Amino acid sequence: MKKDIHPESYRPVVFKDMSNEDIFITRSTMQAKETIMVDGVEYPLIKVEISNTSHPFFTGKAKLVDTAGRVDKFMSRYGDRKRK
């Protein structure tokens, strides 16, 4: 393994799945703007749209996950180009 290429600033961070409010604590180097209290300890908070607790592959439930409205945004931006 190469030396001096891995970051040294690993620390406990809370990742929060915004689709089902599930949280998990792991070590990360990601920078966070928000914090959260878990069991009386304050951790940096990283918000994610989907995790293993809400992903259809892991849950076995097929559901449409389009929280940002990507399809609508695409259609409003590009629409039907053939009509013009």
From TrEMBL:
The keyword Ribonucleoprotein applies. One of its GO terms (molecular function) is structural constituent of ribosome. This is Large ribosomal subunit protein bL31B. GO terms for biological process: translation. The lineage of its organism: Bacteria, Pseudomonadati, Bacteroidota, Bacteroidia, Bacteroidales. PANTHER family: 50S RIBOSOMAL PROTEIN L31, CHLOROPLASTIC, LARGE RIBOSOMAL SUBUNIT PROTEIN BL31C. Part of the 50S ribosomal subunit. It comes from the Bacteria. GO terms for cellular component: ribonucleoprotein complex; ribosome. The gene is rpmE2. Pfam families: Ribosomal_L31 (PF01197). Belongs to the bacterial ribosomal protein bL31 family. Type B subfamily. Keywords: Ribonucleoprotein, Ribosomal protein.
